[in-house]
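thought: user wants a sequence for this fold. calling inverse folding tool.
action: design(structure=
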């Protein structure tokens, strides 16, 4: 309504050492919003935490709303009484020297240029 682009983000929130800021459910799926700040990029805002999204927010997907990026989607065929469980393990990316790239691992996906088309010989 204010002309600020925004999007819905689906991912995980890694609980910290403080119980005050740990999300109930630990590594359960989590969601927050991002707004585009001109000249700065996307800023994550987590209403559950009441703060900006930080290093412990692991973005998996973003879209217009929950319908674009639900954490689980599909069709189940099986017996009644079965349950779905999820085990999430997050590791930071590592550069060529073995240093952790935590900020890059939790930020926007790295854009890689498409491979160059092979040159045709004449």
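)
observation: tool returned 122 residues.
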């Amino acid at each position: 309504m204010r002309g600020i682009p925004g999007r819905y983000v689906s991912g995980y929130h890694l609980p910290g050492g403080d119980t005050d800021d740990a999300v109930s459910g630990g590594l359960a799926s989590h969601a927050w919003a991002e707004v585009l700040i001109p000249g700065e990029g996307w800023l994550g805002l987590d209403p559950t935490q009441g703060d900006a999204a930080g290093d412990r927010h692991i973005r998996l997907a973003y879209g217009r709303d929950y319908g674009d990026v639900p954490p689980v989607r599909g069709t189940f065929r099986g017996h009644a009484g079965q349950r779905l469980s999820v085990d999430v393990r997050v590791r930071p990316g590592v550069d060529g020297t073995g240093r952790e790239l935590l900020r890059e691992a939790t930020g926007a996906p790295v854009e890689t240029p498409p491979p160059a088309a092979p040159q045709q010989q004449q």
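thought: summarizing for user.
answer: Here is the designed sequence. Residues 1-17+27-70 form one domain.
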